Amino acid sequence: MKIGKQTFLFNNVYLQTGASVVGTKEGEGPLKDYFDLILKDDKWCEDSFEKAERKMFKEALELAKNKANLTNEQVDMIFGGDLLNQIISASFASREMDTVFFGLYGACSTICESILLASCMVDGGFANNVLCAASSHFSSAERQYRFPLEYGSSPTPTSQWTVTGAGASVISDKPSNIKIVAGTAGKIIDLGIKDANNMGAAMAPAAADTISTFLRETDTQPEDYDLILTGDLGLFGKELMIKLMADKGYDISSVYNDCGCMIFYKDQTAPMGASGCGCAATVFNGAVRQDMEDNKVKNVLLAATGAMLSPVSSFQGESIPGISYAINFRRV
Amino acid sequence: MKIGKQTFLFNNVYLQTGASVVGTKEGEGPLKDYFDLILKDDKWCEDSFEKAERKMFKEALELAKNKANLTNEQVDMIFGGDLLNQIISASFASREMDTVFFGLYGACSTICESILLASCMVDGGFANNVLCAASSHFSSAERQYRFPLEYGSSPTPTSQWTVTGAGASVISDKPSNIKIVAGTAGKIIDLGIKDANNMGAAMAPAAADTISTFLRETDTQPEDYDLILTGDLGLFGKELMIKLMADKGYDISSVYNDCGCMIFYKDQTAPMGASGCGCAATVFNGAVRQDMEDNKVKNVLLAATGAMLSPVSSFQGESIPGISYAINFRRV
Question: Phi then psi for A82, rounded to 5 degrees?
């Protein structure tokens, strides 16, 4: 059911389970005990980083499917995407699943874009079980968006570290103890930021727009949530986000965190935190989902955030449009 | 409502209208009288082909919205995508619409992927009016997938010509004279074809899989349709498609055509016909929709087809996965 202009309420949609596969660096971070699989080598026995990313995507799908006790036949569809051109991780990984596939591109917001559409499909009676997944890989993303690792280029002070990881969620009409209550779809928001090494600043306005719209259209307040979580704004973007929300009349500071600030220790060579499709996908499906299962947090608003730029658009002098989709998960 | 494994029936979904913007070459082809806008110059006063593509996308959205007499406020959401990396045509064009945006990547199947998801959103009660759009541009696609035009490289005998064009559809719950009756979502199908200059052969198996699934799950036969239309298989792919369907027990030859074989005259330097996201998007929204309005064809099955490759996947020796989504439009 649609309420307001951008928000949907769901009657009968549940998060069955989730799965996460991460790289070596992520596996040494503070959330390491939450992940289903930690790679010993970021190439994972493949001959390219792209193929390793695809393998992670496939493994996340398989793990999620198996944890939910579903056969391929019982999976109605996959919604998925990733950061690589033409979403080759998602489409190649989904080849062997013999299941309907919807390819998405929402940059780092993809996991929430997919869960939102999957929830609509389940609530609308078009599917019973949907797999949602997203991935990124530090080394394939560096090569595509910046420089191949072999060039040895240095990160700028505001740049974030792309997470090597894939996360998958199983969305279903079968009751579980995590209900998907509502979601808000995002608009493209562009305040004119052009620094492709400062994604947090480019994406924070989109997150603030979507989260404030969600709160307004559901008539709730930040304190109604145990956790409001953005995808990958990083340290700088997180600070900005708190300010942008304050400007809109919401004090989120006591319940707010960002996946990009959670996955690494501060001394893990990523001063501004993490980013990438795999960031929210693994932090949510790994850690937050488990904390909800364990009844440590009950009411969570997850808003993954995407920067819809390309190297070509940046070269041509364009600013960076951002987008964010929010999902409200509730422990029942 | 879901019937079978991949097919949905819709109760109350209509195609309100559609719009098309095409380049100069397309505007000299056999369908020229159907298009809403024909560019006089493929750069359209912009300083890059990418920006011209984006402008076409935006114009197609605006034209479709205006033809349907909708304000921005009345448009609930946009589903869109294109061939450029990170779908910059769709996302940048949607910036100023101030509307919910869902970015898709289905390669040249995108217009059908978007109409199928939009139909689910409308039928499920999550939206009243949805804009669906897709675009491609010969010159931006050549630069990204093959070589910049300035290199003067020659096409191979089996290659197709990427359509310069953008098409948009308005999907709505308000009754019109074209009803969207049903749709079938596709699986990723990969028979191991590796020649990136022979997309028709790579995509035909996906089209055959989706169309035969549609016919089986709706319990209909090819002769029940006035027109079965694939997206951009081209001349070689069209022949292959007829054979693949015959292998599955369906003779489609008398009702079958391919948008990629319709948009150019044979002497327009595109021996194998056309391809690109803009191909099915403009041929359907321009010509086929108009013929339905004029009651010349009543029952149409449109199955746009996408090749989910990237230059990187081809360089790394991968085959080309294809996908196709089918939509059944009926004149009422």
Answer: -155, -175
Backbone angles phi, psi at A253, to 5 degrees: -55, -35
- Chain B contact for A93 (CB, 8 A cutoff): no
**Whether the Cβ atoms of residue B24 and residue B163 lie closer than 8 Å to each other:** no
A99 reaches B (C-beta below 8 A): yes
Cβ burial A55-68 (10 Å sphere, 16+ → b, else e): bbbbbbbbbbbeeb
Identify the residue whose tokens are 């035969």. B212
Q: What is the mean pLDDT of chain B?
A: 95
pLDDT category at B270 given cuts 50, 70, 90 is: confident
B50 touches chain A (CB under 8 A): yes
Give the count of Cβ contacts less than 8 A between chain A and B. Answer: 168
For residue A3, how far is the Cα from the chain centroid? 24
ipTM for the assembly: 0.97
Q: Give the tens place of pLDDT for each residue, A211-237.
A: 999 999 999 999 999 999 999 999 999
Name the residue among B48, B51, B95 with its Cβ closest to that of A321.
B95
Residue in this structure with the two tokens 């931006």, named with its chain if needed: B140
Residue A318 CB partners (closer than 8 Å, separation 6+): A194, A309, B88, B92
Q: Which residue has the tokens 């359907």?
A: B284
- Best mutation site among A105, A203, A316, A323 for testing chain B: the one with the most B CBs within 10 Å? A105
What is the spatial distance between Cα A248 and Cα A303, in angstroms, rounded to a whole number?
Answer: 17
Instruction: Specify the pairing of strand A299-307 against strand A322-331.
Output: antiparallel
- Enter the tokens of residue A26: 């992520």
Query: How large a percentage of chain B has pLDDT more than 90?
Result: 87
Please report, rounded to a whole number, the percentage of residues in chain A having pLDDT higher than 90: 87
What is the distance between the alpha carbons of residues A280 and A226, in angstroms, rounded to a whole number? Answer: 17
- Strand positions, DSSP E, A149-212: 161-162, 165-172, 178-184
B226: which 2 tokens? 């006035």
- Strand extents, DSSP E, A10-99: 14-22, 37-38, 77-82
Nearest CB neighbour to B312, from listed A50, A127, A312: A50
pLDDT at B323 over 90: yes
CA angle A197, A201, A205 (to 5 degrees): 145
Banded model confidence at residue A241, pLDDT cuts 50, 70, 90 = very high
pLDDT, tens digit, for every residue of B138-161? 999 998 988 888 888 887 888 899
- A38-85 pLDDT per residue, tens: 999 999 999 999 999 999 999 999 999 999 999 999 999 999 999 999
